[in-house]
Write a structure and sequence with these properties.
CATH class: Alpha Beta
Radius of gyration: 17 Å
Bound molecules: zinc ion
Strand order of the largest sheet: 3-4-9-7-5
Structural class: alpha+beta
Number of helices: 5
Order of helices and strands: HEEEHEHEHEHEEE
Largest sheet: 5 strands, antiparallel
CATH architecture: Alpha-Beta Complex
Strand content: 25-35%
Low-confidence stretches: 1-29
Length: about 210
């Protein structure tokens, strides 16, 4: 569906650069993803526009990257979504909320993909490498949101307003990295969604913007 179009329309795709491993399961038509796939969205992409519109005040956006997380994380999330839908007798889109999640990152992190001037620093066929530690960006990209990485008593925070998430981003840098996360809850969140349930969250998009 749309994903193929995104890959074609993107100015470049990171699929090949991440040495993603695909394990074909003959019993299923889809393949298993063991490493997050990143695809830079074009400004003309409808999904780019959708993410941009989530910001109450549009910042200077340097890049919006679509994420396809590991299959095991995606499956857990989908299973929990089905549970919530059945439990609360609702449709899937009424238990899913797009929320922001700010994070800190290593100043020279390869996964930033752009420098402070918004210029692409990683191009197709280059191999960015994940930081070993102290980088929230690389941590989330590799493992999803983890409650053990939270400093708030193993609770993870997500906000509807990007300005709230700014407080969790790297201090003192012009550009901030923020994720857009699908959060599952049967109760509509009032600005923030706080949870210790990892499968209730799934990263969909990584943004880099000047606030
Ligand atoms: Zn990093």
């Amino acid at each position: 569906m749309a994903q193929e179009n995104h890959q074609k329309s993107s100015s470049f795709a990171f699929l090949s650069t991440f040495k993603s491993t695909f394990i074909n399961n003959p019993s299923k038509t889809s393949s298993t993803i063991t490493q997050t796939q990143l695809t830079l969205l074009n400004r003309t992409d409808p999904e780019y526009e959708m993410v941009k519109n989530l910001f109450a005040i549009t910042p200077k956006i340097h890049g919006i990257v679509k994420l396809k997380m590991q299959t095991k994380l995606e499956n857990k999330h989908e299973k929990y979504k089905k549970f919530l839908v059945n439990y609360s007798v609702r449709k899937p889109n009424t238990v899913t909320y797009k929320m922001f999640h700010g994070t800190k990152r290593w100043p020279l992190c390869d996964l930033l993909m752009f420098n402070d001037q918004g210029v692409v620093i990683k191009k197709e066929n280059e191999n960015p490498s994940y930081c070993q530690n102290h980088c929230g960006l690389c941590g989330i990209l590799q493992q999803g949101n983890r409650k053990k990485c939270s400093k708030s008593s193993k609770k993870m925070w997500f906000a509807q307003d990007a300005n709230t998430s700014l407080n969790y981003c790297e201090y003192g840098t012009k550009t901030k990295v923020m994720f857009v996360i699908d959060c599952l809850t049967k109760t509509p969140p009032l600005n923030v969604f706080i949870t210790g349930n990892e499968k209730a969250t799934l990263s969909r998009v990584k943004t880099r913007a000047e606030f």
